[in-house]
Design a protein that fits this description.
The complex is a heterodimer of chains A (about 400) and B (about 220).
Chain A: H1 8-11, H2 13-24, E1 30-35, H3 42-56, E2 60-65, H4 70-83, H5 92-108, E3 115-119, H6 130-133, E4 136-140, H7 150-160, E5 165-168, E6 181-183, H8 200-210, E7 218-222, H9 231-242, E8 248-253, H10 262-273, E9 279-283, H11 289-298, E10 301-304, H12 313-320, E11 325-328, H13 333-336, E12 344-346, H14 349-361, H15 363-380, H16 383-396, E13 403-405
Helix pairs in contact in A: 2-16, 8-11, 9-10, 9-14, 12-15, 14-15
Chain B: E1 8-24, H1 27-36, H2 39-52, H3 63-70, H4 75-82, H5 92-109, E2 122-138, H6 141-150, H7 153-166, H8 173-180, H9 184-192, H10 200-216
Antiparallel strand pairs in B: 1-2
Helix pairs in contact in B: 1-5, 2-5, 2-7, 3-4, 6-10, 8-9
The chains are: A alpha/beta (about 400), B alpha+beta (about 220).
Chain lengths: ~400, ~220
């Protein structure tokens, strides 16, 4: 795990110093994170990276994982799907069991930290314990709440309302609630394998390995093969643009093997690609961070033509590498791209094709988009900003007013 | 050190973004919310761009103008909103009135008002600002210049933008300090700058240039 001082060459000494300045205001306060899994999934990944940094900043931070059995996790998976908008009615008995597991955990856990930070719906009902303790509680929803199935949302809202604050990843996830709602976006780690600087030889090696010609323009989309990422739409946009500009298309990702829809998506992609030698469909294993890094860095343009998106961290990754990005205006992508300032936002296949041509033909403009995008990610979507936001969130629980003098 | 001698304690600030749970999908809805949201929300949407895109020049538009132009495709109103001369206002209330006036003028002549596509609504936000003292305390113009080089852009932002408009102190903190040193002309020159037309780094360099000019004269 990286030491905070390793971020100094990237964000500057002053920004790292600011984290220590803020953390000092939390001196003596303990912070307890609670989620439902120690490994796997985005939340565990964030907490794994975040905990050592919080400790280095002098915060008495701990991380507890709630216990649950198979039945509990089947129920919470249904809750998760319902929050994504799937109309699943969860039987009353299941909801009662969900609460029972939460109550058993609450009885066994030591919840007396100054701040209890609960992640996602699984441990949400631990808040019932707060009445006895009287400390500060915040809840973070990490999933896409833009169109939750109302009965499940209503059930959860009863518990969310008991927290001191709720945290969401994108503005469209916010709701009318009686408690403060805070926007904290996810982040990328510039020192991670997927994002760190790579020597040009490594990039060349990866392109040569896949047989992609770097002397011609390369347009790339990195995402799992999923209808929501619209790989077929990407190929159609490529074909429209290719009538006027020479280019290659790379679709790189994974996910097809364990997704029941995977084979069908691949069939559609292959049919649309029509054996075009300039289209590269790359299945990558989960351990392909360096390859993804190299593909992003060596490409001329990066696409993210999603139909739906949570936050879209692949956009952050590409912008961080200074690449011009053309992406759909969905989920958290508009937070990352200001149209024509730090990238291009499109709505249609035609619009995507239009901008591919423009950016290939106007490399100076494309370069400026990439430079601005890099700066935007550096200022707003790196892990150091994420840590800063968490510190501010914790501080906000101990103060009132729009302007707080610490 | 004489305790009554002028001194300037550089502060820095951090913003926590608050979601208000309110959204607009048309200019009419935008207007209704602009009338009702807290002052901190108007401040947030007219200043956030400046901080988040502090490396861009010239000044990008405020959130309202950006949304109206790029999502509703109403360049006329978008241009009017982005041309609002924020520096002329002494309070958020005045700024809010000016935005309302522009939108009302547009609505009084618009034949049709477009709706935003689903998922691209305008989401209202605001911020809670945490102000912290830095270790830098200037007792002279030379001290000030040296420390100004060291402080973050958040500090410049706080003393120039928050102080004047949000805390309604009438003028920026730097000019107030220069006046207390008897440097009235320097105070006026800094006051006359339109900070909305600079990047934050560019603004810092401009103020440093002015200080050095007065130090030499």
């Amino acid at each position: 795990m990286n030491d905070l001082k390793e971020y100094v060459p990237i964000i500057g000494q002053d920004r790292v110093d600011e984290l220590f300045l803020l953390a000092k205001k939390l001196e003596g306060k303990s912070v307890q994170n609670i989620n439902s899994t120690a490994v796997g999934g985005g939340v565990a990944e964030i907490l794994t990276r975040m905990m050592p940094h919080l400790k280095q900043l002098g915060i008495a931070a701990r991380w507890d994982v709630m216990k649950g059995n198979e039945r509990f996790f089947v129920i919470t998976k249904n809750i998760h799907n319902a929050l994504h908008g799937v109309p699943i009615d969860i039987p009353k008995g299941d909801l009662e069991y969900f609460l029972e597991v939460n109550r058993t955990n609450a009885a066994e856990m030591d919840l007396r930290s100054d701040v209890v930070f609960v992640h996602d719906p699984q441990p949400i009902a631990l808040i019932e314990k707060r009445r006895e303790i009287g400390n500060h509680w915040a809840w973070r929803g990490h999933v896409d709440f833009s169109s939750p199935y109302p009965p499940v949302w209503d059930f959860l809202t009863e518990y969310i309302r008991q927290y001191d604050a709720a945290v969401f990843s994108a503005p469209s996830f916010s709701r009318e609630l009686n408690i403060p709602q805070v926007l904290i976006s996810p982040s990328i780690d510039p020192l991670a394998e997927k994002n760190k600087d790579l020597p040009d030889e490594k990039i060349r090696e990866v392109f040569d390995w896949f047989g992609i010609d770097r002397s011609r323009p390369v347009v790339t989309q990195v995402s799992r093969f999923d209808y929501l990422k619209d790989p077929v739409g990407v190929i159609r946009a490529y074909k429209m643009a290719k009538r006027y500009v020479d280019m290659q298309l790379v679709l790189a990702g994974g996910g097809a093997t364990d997704d029941p829809e995977g084979p069908k998506i691949m069939e559609d992609v292959r049919r649309e690609a029509e054996n075009d030698k300039d289209i590269f469909v790359l299945f990558l294993s989960p351990a392909s961070d360096i390859e993804i890094n190299a593909l992003q860095r060596g490409s001329t343009i990066i696409l993210q033509k999603s139909l739906k998106e949570g936050f879209g961290l692949t956009v952050s990754e590409a912008l961080w590498k200074g690449k011009p990005v053309i992406a759909s205006s969905v989920g958290g992508i508009p937070l990352q791209i200001a149209h024509k300032y730090s990238g291009i936002l499109t709505q249609t296949i035609e619009g995507t094709a239009h901008w591919i041509k423009q950016l290939i033909n106007e490399p100076a403009f494309a370069r400026r988009l990439g430079e601005n995008g890099h700066e935007h990610i550096k200022s707003n979507f790196l892990i150091t900003r994420h840590i800063k936001d968490y510190l501010l969130l914790f501080l906000s629980l101990f103060s009132a007013g729009d302007i707080v003098h610490l | 050190m004489n305790e009554s001698a002028p001194q300037f304690h550089f502060q820095t600030k951090f913003d926590l973004t608050i979601l208000l749970g309110k959204k607009a999908s048309s200019v009419r809805e935008l207007l209704a919310h602009i009338r009702a949201v807290p002052k901190s929300s108007i401040y947030y949407h007219t200043h956030k761009f400046l901080e988040q895109h502090h490396y861009l020049s010239p000044e990008p538009p405020n959130d309202f103008a950006y949304w109206v132009s790029t999502v509703l495709n109403e360049p006329n109103l978008g241009e009017r909103l982005s041309s609002i001369d924020i520096i002329q206002f002494r309070s958020i209330a005045e700024l809010r009135e000016s935005i309302i006036l522009e939108i009302e003028r547009y609505l009084s002549t618009a034949r049709r008002t477009p709706e935003s596509p689903e998922g691209q609504e305008f989401y209202f936000m605001s911020c809670r600002t945490f102000v912290l003292p830095t270790p830098f305390v200037a007792h002279s113009l030379t001290d000030f210049r040296n420390y100004l080089k060291l402080v973050t852009i958040q500090s410049i932002y706080y003393h120039i933008f928050d102080a004047r408009l949000r805390s309604e102190r009438g003028e920026n903190d730097f000019s107030l300090f220069f006046r207390s040193l008897g440097e009235d002309r320097l105070a006026e020159d800094v006051l006359r700058l339109d900070p909305y037309t600079y990047t934050l780094e560019g603004l810092k360099q401009r103020i440093l240039f002015l200080i050095e000019k007065y130090e030499r004269s």
